[in-house]
What we know:
By secondary structure, the protein is an alpha/beta fold. The chain folds into 2 domains: 4-202, Spore Coat Polysaccharide Biosynthesis Protein SpsA, Chain A (Alpha-Beta Complex); 205-317, no CATH class. The protein contains 12 helices and 9 strands.
Amino acid sequence: MATSGIVVVGRNEGERLHRCLPSVRSADLPLVYVDSCSHDGSAAWARSIGVTVHELDGGKPLSAARARNEGFERLLADHPDLQFVQFVDGDCQLDPGWMAMGAERLLAQAELGIVCGRVRERDPQASIYNLLCNLEWQHEPGVVRSCGGNFMVRVAAFRAVGGFRADVMAAEDDELCLRLRRAGFTILSLDADMVVHDAAMMRFGQWWTRARRTGMAYAHGAALHGSSDDKHFLRNCRSAWLWGLGLPAVSLLLAPPTLGVSLLALSGYPALGLRIYQRGRRRGWSQHEAAVYALFTVMCKWPEVQGMVEYHYRTGWQKRETTLIEHKE
């Protein structure tokens, strides 16, 4: 009897899904593919190769969190004895050896709620944006505070905290990990390959939209848990407000009365970039990698602020829920 099952979530992944599902099926474990109202034929194609498909109701807000929750429930309804569930995004390929390794570690350590492994970018040299993703995925193995959307979770732990919050449109994995830690569970990153990710991010506009979504995630996360001892995403929000809005606004507004002296404050940007660059070099990155990462980490403060403003305008002024933001074609 299988101890583990797999939930794949996707929306209009096209060829990426065509690589994902065969890699997952090779594990020969219970599998459900959750389709978020794709219009590229993903659901029909998955059924054609014999995969169980669960399609989300488009009448409700779409989110990766909601997709994973519904996929989890569908999988456990069909296979109620499963102990662990691996979540895989539809733009990823599962490493052949990961499922056995992850399950073995969860079986050995009862305090573990989640195990995850290395995420590698499929083609980091295709664009600087893919390269940025590849650098973002790099984490030291060991106990961590959070993980990305690809991970293996203990069924009992997932149920104990109520799964994902379906209304969290981005960084839903960070929010889940926070509640798991509060419940006494540990998140462990293993020194092993888990998935190969395909960002397929080739344009500046895609990067900007992704960073804007990150800003919305920071604002939402801080609104939910920022006042707790965890101070969830508070530092990220403060950094974005400072560098993305506060510093440039004050420098420019004070330029006339200070005869331009206030503009010297803008030298803080290259100083910030230098610190990030040096941090990257200490991590063993090449000069090119560290420089690209530093440049875009500084630049992302502006789209992050835009996303934060959008969140507060939508939820505060308009009294509406946030909606899914997609950066892929």
